[in-house]
Amino acid sequence: MPTWSKAIAEPAQEFPLKPLPILSGQIPDGLRGTLYRNGPGRLERGGQKVGHWFDGDGAILAVHFSAAGATATYRYVNTQGYQKEAEAHQFLYPNYGMTVPGPFWKTWGKDVKNAANTSVLALPDKLLALWEGGNPYALDLDNLETKGLDNLSILTITEPFSAHPKIEAKTGNIYNFGISLGAKVILNLYKSDKTGKVNKKSTYPLDGLRIVHDFVLAGSYLVFFVPPIRVKLLPTALGFSSLSDAMEWKPELGTEILIFDRETLSLVSRSETDPWFQWHHTNGYVNDQGNIIVEFVRYPDFKTNQNLKEVATGKIQTPAKGTLWEIEINPSNSQVINQQQLLDRGLDFPITPKHQTGQFWRYTYLSVHRDQANLSQEIFGAIARFDRQLNTLSIADMGENGYPSEPIFVPNSSNSEQGWVLTVVYHGDRDRSEVRIYDSEALDHDPICCLALPHVIPLGFHGTWKQV
Question: Structure pTM?
């Protein structure tokens, strides 16, 4: 078994707010705020393993930085499903990669568990734990106590609030989406104010259930790439198959491009283009010619889903390589004008400085594979900064058996183009986790500070930074 598998071999241990000892360096004077990270903390219950990495119960890490130093707490999101399964000492609900044990006439139509495990959205008075298929769960910003489901003042239980909202920096408006199942499959679009309250909604019908994990805010547009995947709904509805196993890759259908106006949430244009799959987009903007530029991580097919399923087993057998691409689109008709590969290196989890969302940007931060990494066995072992202007890549290698989380950029108040890059690293050799702080201008140098965490933090998905 690879060394990284030890990070997910056992359910994670919660811990209350504790000071973090400094292992090396010192915390930068200007770093004041909180790093939040979300991911599956429990992949087993009652001797049963989850069916997919996406099925694990969400657990959130909060690392608070103040003049007194750094403190941290780690807690599971106390969802309704988590509580009931804890009482029963077994899994009770279907999920992305799981079915419920028993005859279908007893399990048919059973609600999917909201795992609250994918990302976080820090609002002025609460933290939202986000998931693909339901309303978010609200938590206390400081101690991570779960407050309960949050409908953002308007959403119904059948209107999911997905895991990759985009915040427009000047207004603080939040844009997001969710896919609803019913008589028709509906793409719901949402516009919220900076408190999270949804003040505008619209809907767009989809031809069958699609897998849409992320989207892009680009100037005055919201852009969706809908990959050529179709889901066989009947075996899923009857409980014979999990959602993941019911998905079919159909490259002959091509990728659908949908462009919406960000203010009215109405469709501007749609088209179809080459087949590919993507989980994540970096960012987007409108260039001087009025065309949309989108950067994203592109996979040639859907083998990435099997790869991520195997992560939960602790042993990867299906390689899947995502590479960085840029595409130029005419918004009036969604036609692709140009597309090019920017980096031919295995990578994912791209982010940009939050204040540049929807605007032109220079630096993209990513998780990448280490040099000579075996993609059939390894997960990401480094983080990097891609300079779009100079076409250069600066890499922070975590060292042998070191595995970082998605990098989070924190701007310096004196210069928003510069700052720090934070990541949570699991050390397989030492079987421990730590927080690392890098200078964004010297990512390929040693970290400027390393902080020890009380317990292992399992490999996870997405995070955010909330400035004080």
Answer: 0.96
CATH number at residue 79: 2.130.10.10
Angle at 359 between CA 355 and CA 360, to 5 degrees: 110
Instruction: Quote the CA–CA distance of 448 and 308 in Å, as a whole number.
Output: 32
Q: Which two tokens mark 315?
A: 């042993």
DSSP state of 9: S
d(CA 319, CA 309): 12
Q: Cα(225)–Cα(460) distance, rounded to whole angstroms?
A: 24
The total number of structural domains that make up the chain = 1
Q: Which range marks the domain in which residue 325 is found?
A: 3-467
d(CA 66, CA 84): 37
In this structure, are strands 48-49 and 119-122 parallel, antiparallel, or unpaired?
A: unpaired
Q: How confident is the model at residue 1 (pLDDT cuts 50, 70, 90)?
A: confident
Tens of pLDDT along 74-113? Answer: 999 999 999 999 999 999 999 999 987 665 555 566 788 9
**In sequence order, what are the residues at sequence separation of 6 or more whose Cβ sits closer than 8 angstroms to the Cβ of residue 444?**
394, 395, 396
